Every structure is written in structure tokens, then in C-alpha cells.
Amino acid sequence: MTTNDQQQPAVRPGKVYLIGAGPGDPTLITVKGLELLKRAQVVVYDYLASPKLLKYVPKGAEFIYAGKKGGGCHAHTQEEINQMLVDHALAGKAVVRLKGGDPFIFGRGAEEIQELAKFGIPFEVVPGVTSATAAATYAGVPITHREFTSSVAFVTGHEDPTKAASNIAWDKIATGIGTLVFYMGIKNLPTIAENLIKHGRAPETPVAVVRWASTPIQKSVVGTLATIAQVVKETGITPPALVVVGEVVKLRDTINWFEKRPLFNRRILVTRTREQASELVRLLEDRGADCVEGATIAMEPPESWDELDAALTRIGDYQWLVFASINAIRFFFGRLLDKGMDARDLKGPKVAAVGVATAEALRDYGIRADLIPEEFTGDGLAESLVAQGVAGARVLIPRAKKAREIVPDTLRDHGAQVDVVTVYQNVQPKDYDLVRQELADGAIDMVTFTSSSTVTNFLDMLGNDRDKLLAGVKFAAIGPITAKTAVKHGLAIDVQPATYTIPAMVDAIVDFYNS
Ligand code: SAH
User: Fold this and answer.
1) Quick check: is 163 catalytic?
2) CA distances in angstroms from 385 to 138, 188, 232, 327, 405, listed in the order given
3) What pLDDT score does 11 carry?
4) Would you call 68 a catalytic residue per the annotation?
5) How far is the CA of 268 from the centre of ligand 1 (A)?
6) Which of 51, 81, 111, 261 has the most crowded CB, counting CB atoms within 10 A?
7) For residue range 218-229, what is the model confidence (pLDDT) as tens digits?
8) Tens digit of pLDDT for each residue in 363-401?
9) Ligand 1 mean position to 172 CA, how many Å?
10) Which of 377, 410, 427 is the last residue of a domain?
């Protein structure tokens, strides 16, 4: 999924869309739900709807947090929520009501719709992946299986256990249904298990309890009807969690795919710039990691474009145009396009890229790199250019304001005439409080560094308590230069890949945790 860069027209004004957000993993929302969310003007969302979905809402839309269910600290009462939906719809807004899981499964979605209907307000409902199926699937439990069960029931575990007349026919569900899934059942778990046993379900029936299903912080435990209350107490499982009861839980040994991903349960800090973090985050998350984005560098255009503009007017005089980073490419081409130019105006010089990722970025702008060194470092780049013979050649290097001098210096040493122009500058973000807090809580397992400046900025931003904050944390560096900078600043590098690419670094992190 990409962010909502392109604003789409709002969906029908004056209408309410009740949308199931899915169970926790934001990518489990339906395509329809996401399309509507991207066109909302007001979004009223719940505690259990992933906040990560909010980035798809158009700029300028109004967000309203409807609050936590069952936790006692409601931001708004149900009546207030109903009223808000009515008011915004009557004011002509396209309103999205975003709920965790499926809106009609223990979600009070129907009550909200009934209220809209009273006022004749048009509405649509988009179902969602309910947490019961997600929790079972993500804990490796198939909710049905021909050999084990032919029926499933979703049951509320929220009912007051001391209530004289229960709405739940315990005698019937205990033995009449194969798989039972209890929502909101953690507090009452001892009573639920007792009731089922009392009404004839075998005490050794397997039970799984899954907390924050489908998210990187998912936790699941198993036991039997006889033991599960104790297991949950000992492991400290708190809501939101689901209780899955039935023989199908036995299949978990074979099917538990989600928690067996190699980086599951590892919380990894990504210090790259926000623009560049996505590939690393995606690869780490694919392998099950929980990523914290704490960019240590933000990029800005140079104070003036005069240098680059001047170089572009004489681009045909250069023999080489050299790019040592993707950022340099983005800013260089950003300016080129802003000036009404494009790749066709770069006729003349050959183009060199420091590595495969940089070469790929060039392709996005319609340029095929003429040279990629074998070793993807500045030194490698300089050497391969020298090997081509650069004496007397004119070389243009667009790059960051502050960068290593190895490429221009080496080329000059070999007789080239080099123009270095600034196309962007790195600045330090001011706010790093969230990351500091995570480190202080001991929540981060590993920090990844993808350049020397990520190391120095990171340490700079931690300030004097760095040693306390970094106790027990592991470090990964993308290549030897970055590692050297880290070591120079007193950090021990635990992971360093043989090739200096993001995918290789992720593979090395997986190897590290698996060895
Ligand atoms: N409409 C929602 C359920 C709301 S009731 C749905 O279809 O999933 C709230 C209860 O749902 C919680 O107490 C918990 O039992 C369950 N729940 C919701 N999301 C969950 C998740 N990610 N992991 C485990 N349980 C979850």
C-alpha cells in the first residue's frame, strides 16, 4: 500500500461508511474499505482499528478518536459517538466510521446504523476480517478442519458471570459446537472454562489464547480447559485477546507460521531517513520484525541551486556524471524536472552509480548506468572510474553538502577536473523523545545503521545517557565504513553483511538471530 499522495474526490457527501478495519495488521483491511478511507472527510475510529491506517486518510480530513472499548476509559460514550456520526453526516460530510475487526461482530455497529436510519441518513457497511479468524490463523489454528470440527461459534466472554439467567446456552455450546471463540473473555476466563467443563466439555480440550493478533506484538499461549486460566495468569496476558477452544488447536504445532518467522518478537530501530526507510522496514517486517522508525537524518534542498543550475547549462562538457547515493539522484532529478528538463537534456557524459540500488534509482529517471563498481563503496566507485582512465576528463558529482572526499580526491589525483555540487543537505531531526523512551524501556532489541551519519547523529541525539539507554542493545551496520564509524564511537557491531546492500543486511540480521 502506498500513502495517499494523490487526493481523490470525497465519497458521497452526507453518507456514513461503516468499515471493518480488520484485526490489527493494517494490510488486512479490505480493498473496498481502504478505497473509501482514502476519500473520507471525517474519520471516527476505535482503539482496536490500527492507527497505521490513518495515514491513508486525505490531508485536511477530520480525525475523531472514539475511544477504548471495555477498558473503562472511554473517550466518548456510545451515545456521543452516535450523535457525532449523525451531526457530521447531516453537515454534508463523507464520514467513515472505522472499527476493529468486523463492525457487526461484537462491534455495536448495528446500534450506530440504527441511529443513522432514524434520521434517514444514507449508509454503507463494509465487512472486515474479524479478530477471531485472524487470531486463530495467526496462531496457527485452522478454525475448522474436516477431521476435527464441523461448526464454530463466536461467543462474547463479556457477560457478567454472576448473572442469574445467562444469554449463553452453556449446556448447548459446551458439547454442541466444535470450535468456540470467545471475544472479550480474558477477565472471565476462569468462569468460561469452568462453565464449559461443568456442561460436559472434556477438561483436556486444548485452548489457545491470542493477544494483539496479527500485529508484530502478538502473543499466544496454549493450555487446556483445565489449565488455561492459570497459564494466562502466569504469562500475564491482558486484553485484547481471544480464546479459541477446540481440538483444532492441536494443529498449531504444524501450522504456526506467523510466530515462526525468523525475526518475530524482535523490535528493531531503523535510523534511516524517512524517505529511505521503507525498503528496510518492509524487508524486516516480512521476516516478522517489529520496526520502530526513528530517522536520525532529515534531508533538505541546498540553500541555493545556482551551482547545479550552472553545471546543467554546460552538461555536454562533462565526460562523467557520478552518483554516490540515491538521495543525490532524487534531488538532482527533482531539480532537473522542476526546471522543465528531463533525462534527454543530460546528453554527453557517461553516468556512474555507486551500486545496484543507485543504478536502479537512475533507471526510474530513464538513465542506464554506464558503470557500477564491483565493491559498492565510494572507494570502489573511485577505483573503477580511475580504471576507465580519467586523466583530463571533466567529472560532475552532485551530492550532499557534507560527504566524504574520497571520490573527488582520488579522481583529481589521477588528473580529472572535478566539479562537486551540493544537491541536498542532511539535517538532524529535533525530536527523538519517542525513541529515547523506547530505549529507556528496554523495548528495542537492535539498532540498524545504514551510513556513518546515522551513527553519529543517533549518538548525538541520545546525548549523555547513551550508555544507559543502549545497554543490551545489538547493532547492525550496512558496511565497513559505517561499522568503523560505530566502533570509533564505542559501539560494538554485531551484524555486518558481506555485500553492502539493504537485503544483505536483513539476511545477516536473520542469520544473527538464528545462530
Ligand atoms: N468487532 C471486533 C470485535 C470487537 S470486541 C472484531 O470483529 O474483531 C473487542 C474484542 O475483540 C477484544 O476484547 C478481543 O477479545 C477481540 N480482539 C479484537 N482485536 C483483537 C486482536 N488484534 N487480537 C486479539 N483479540 C482481539
Assistant:
1) no
2) 51, 71, 63, 21, 15
3) 67
4) yes
5) 26
6) 81
7) 999 999 999 999
8) 999 999 999 999 989 999 999 999 999 999 999 999 999
9) 24
10) 427
